[in-house]
Amino acid sequence: MKVIRPLPRRFFDRPADQVARDLLGSRLVVRGADGRVSRHMVCETEAYLGAHDLACHAARGMTPRNAVMFGPAGIWYVYLCYGMHWMLNVVTGPPGVPAAVLIRGVGGHQGPGRLTRALGIDARHGGLPAARETGLWFEAGQDVPPRLVARTPRIGVGYAGAWAEKPLRFVVDPETLVSVEDVGRRSRRRPRRTEA
DNA sequence: ACGATGATGAAC
DNA sequence: TTCATCATCGTA
Question: Which CATH number fits domain A9-185: 3.40.50.300, 3.10.300.10, 3.40.228.10, 2.40.128.10?
Answer without folding.
Answer: 3.10.300.10
